[in-house]
Specification:
Blueprint lengths: L1 E6 L8 H7 L4 E4 L6 H10 L2 E3 L7 H4 L5 E6 L2 E6 L3 E2 L2 E2 L1 H10 L3 E3 L6 E6 L4 E6 L10 E10 L2 E11 L6
Parallel strand pairs: 1-2, 2-3, 5-8, 8-10
Antiparallel strand pairs: 1-11, 4-5, 6-7, 9-10, 11-12
Length: 168
């Protein structure tokens, strides 16, 4: 069993409220747009990190994180990339990888919109944690945490905060 914290679109902000929400996870998955390598390193220092670069990430981030990750956890095959889409509306590159890798769980970011959906046609779970940074079109900052146990995703929890971060 492993506890996963899922975030995306930090855009240079890994705030204390998000860290508090993720304090008990075993690993953080980041679905892209760290904002800078300093933020990537800050997350790595906080917890083990599995991440991908996003469209706003510079070459320093891209040299530290790949375009996509395909891995297995507790028997669950995971595909993670930044720009992915949703069931019936996948990005072309995401759809190609989905067809090749055939994941049980597809993780993406980019939209700043939290969505957890079953793809009933392709038979897998899709997760987008929304955005936990302060840049972008979102109204609230969001993150997810969940447990993977023997191929099952369970105990899914949502973290939700105001977009403005109290720095005091």
């Amino acid at each position: 069993m492993i506890k996963v914290g899922l975030i995306s679109d930090t855009h240079k902000v890994f705030a204390k409220d998000v860290k508090d929400f993720l304090k008990d996870v075993d690993v953080i998955w980041h679905a892209g747009d760290f904002g800078d390598v300093k933020t990537l390193e800050e997350i790595e220092e906080f917890k083990p990190l599995v991440g991908v670069y996003g469209n706003c990430d510079d070459w320093d981030v891209r040299s530290s994180a790949p375009e996509y990750q395909s891995f297995e956890v507790e028997g669950l095959k995971v595909l993670m990339m930044h720009i992915g889409g949703y069931p019936g509306r996948y990005d072309r590159r995401a759809y190609e990888l989905i067809q090749t890798i055939k994941p049980n769980l597809f993780v993406c970011g980019h939209s700043h919109i939290l969505k957890v959906m079953n793809d009933k046609t392709l038979n897998f779970l899709t997760m987008n944690p929304g955005a936990c940074g302060i840049q972008g079109p979102h109204i609230v900052r969001t993150a997810l945490r969940f447990t993977i146990d023997n191929t099952e995703v369970k105990d899914l929890e949502l973290g939700e905060w105001e977009r403005i971060i109290d720095t005091h």
